[in-house]
Structures are given as structure tokens and as C-alpha cells.
Amino acid sequence: MNLVSVRVITDDPARLVAFYEKVTGTAADWANDDFAEVRTASGTLAIGSTRTVPLFAPGSARPADNRSVILEFRVDDVDAVHTELRTWVEEFVTEPTTLPWGNRSLLLCDPDGNLVNLFTPVTPAAKERFGR
To answer: Over the Cα atoms of the chain, what is R_g?
Structure first.
């Protein structure tokens, strides 16, 4: 079994896709107005409209209601990314901080309030975990 993607449900797919395109520097592939994918080398972030929820199970997902998932993206230099993002991100949850497990992390929220962690492995053990 392989994890293929994580899907975020939103009332405004265009706004959320634009945010993730800007953060990742990757253009999304749109299937239609209700569904797009931002593909990276190691995974895909799928973004679906609330109009797609009834296709799975009515009421099974609510937009902008996440309080348990953090979407994480490994970047080459989190401090440089932080400097770049400061030009358009109004507020960060945390500034770049080195965490006990060896990643230097920057936490922010997407337009729907979902937590986004941009991180760079900085200790030898963390670099080894990510094959760097």
C-alpha cells in the first residue's frame, strides 16, 4: 500500500490552490473547477470543492474545520523560504525554529486555517532520515 495524496476540502478551491501554488512554486493540475492537484516529487496535495463531498458521503467532510492535521513540505532552506514568504504571508504561527527531532520548521496557516509546516532537516540524524 502507498500513500498517494492528501485531500483538503474547501469552499474556495481557486483561493486554496493559488496559495499552495505560491508556497510550493508548483502549478496545479486542474481536473475541473472542483478539483485540482499540486504534485511534488514525493506526494500530491489534492484540493476539492465542498461540491465533491456528496460524491463520497454527504456531510463527511467540512471545510476550514481541521484541528488535527499538519501538512508538511520539506524545503531546501526554511530560513530563505521564510524570508520570501514574509512578502505576502501576514502572520506565521511560529518563526523558523529547530525542533528536538532535528528539523528546522516554519509553521503557518493556509487560507482555510489548515496548519502548514515547511521544514529543513538540519541535524545529522534528521538528514539521514530524509536521505540527505
So the answer is: 16
CB 60 within 8 A of CB 53: yes
Instruction: Let me know whether 50 and 70 are in one domain.
Output: no
| Same domain, yes or no: 118 and 95 | yes
Q: What is the DSSP letter of 81?
A: H
| pLDDT at site 132 | 72
Dihedral in degrees, nearest 10, Cα atoms 130, 17, 79, 120: -10
What was the pLDDT predicted at 58? 95
DSSP 20: H
Record the pTM. Answer: 0.94
- pLDDT at site 131: 87
pLDDT of 44: 98
Same-domain pairing of 71 and 129 = yes
Low-confidence ranges of the chain (pLDDT < 70): none
- The parent domain of residue 25 ranges over 1-58
Are residues 70 and 49 located together in one domain of the fold? no
- If we measure between CA atoms, which residue out of 93, 3, 85 comes closest to residue 44? 3
